[in-house]
Amino acid sequence: QLPLEESGGGSVQAGESLRLSCSAPGLTFGGRTMAWFRQTPGKDREFVAAVGWQGSITHYSDSVKGRFAISRDIGKNTVYLQMNNLKPEDTASYHCGRGLKMFTTPQNMGAQDEYGNWGLGVLVTVSP
Q1: Left (φ > 0), alpha (ψ -120 to 50) or beta: where does 41 sit?
Q2: Residue 24 near residue 80 (C-beta atoms within 8 A)
């Protein structure tokens, strides 16, 4: 399966912002739910945010709600994650996922098994 490509990670201080991007040359995001998950060493991948096909339906984990915003540019076949007011506990490798199909319920959006294509991840480090 073709991997997705994430970019925009880096090292910041607490309170600062970053914007992650996800694209996939040769693979369309059309008609699919897209999501961001994150992972730290020794832990399972954790759901962060998801967006439906037209961008109007979103779902967030409680830990990032109000600070992160997921969006998509259909014409550019790109998904973004705007991360504001970053905290040290946000430090992780962030992975973009392409849904197996279109779904909009929070249960489906937050389930890792609903996504079939993944990126290798981009590292976000937040220092106190």
Answers
A1: beta
A2: no
